[in-house]
Amino acid sequence: ALLATAGPATWAGARVAADDAAAHAAVLAAGSGRQDAPVVLLVTRPGCPWCRALVGDVLGHPDVLAALGEAARVEEVPRADPRAGRLPGVPAVVVLGPDGARRGALAGYRPDVGRFLAELRPLLAGSGGAAD
């Protein structure tokens, strides 16, 4: 039985890995490049399954990618990056103003895309939003 399932399981695993890589690349390419726009930090750690899930399930969603396009850029950083500030853990999305001041953070895996956007958009606009 193991031999009969090894092929499809390996193929499915490779497909999921390719989808994850494509979503990850799209998220990191989402910024506008404008100097007067906020910067979004994607705070992760290597091997974190919740970090991969946040990127694939939420940040890679077309509506979220469009919102991230309002940022100057999206950078993936480790939790130790001083710009991330204090966080309860990873994954987290931290929004910095064009001046580098922290506007707020969305910590943890948040699977509801609509709710995530409702919290992210005010941070991108500089009008408050999610509590740290």
Topology:
Blueprint: H1 2-28, E1 39-44, H2 49-59, H3 62-68, E2 73-78, E3 92-96, E4 102-107, H4 113-125
Parallel strand pairs: 1-2
Antiparallel strand pairs: 1-3, 3-4
Helix pairs in contact: 1-2, 3-4
What does this structure look like?
The protein is an alpha+beta fold and 132 residues long. The protein has four helices and four strands. It has helices spanning 2-28, 49-59, 62-68, 113-125, and strands at 39-44, 73-78, 92-96, 102-107. A four-stranded mixed sheet has the order 2-1-3-4, with helices on one face. A hairpin with a 5-residue loop joins β3 (92-96) and β4. α1 packs across α2 (49-59) and α3 runs parallel beside α4. Mean pLDDT is 86; it is low at 1-13.
Helical run tally: 4
**DSSP strand count:** 4
- Please state the overall shape, judged from the principal axes of the Cα atoms: globular
How large, in whole angstroms, is the Cα Rg?
Answer: 16 Å
Helix-strand pattern = HEHHEEEH
Mean pLDDT: 86
> How many angstroms separate the termini?
50 Å
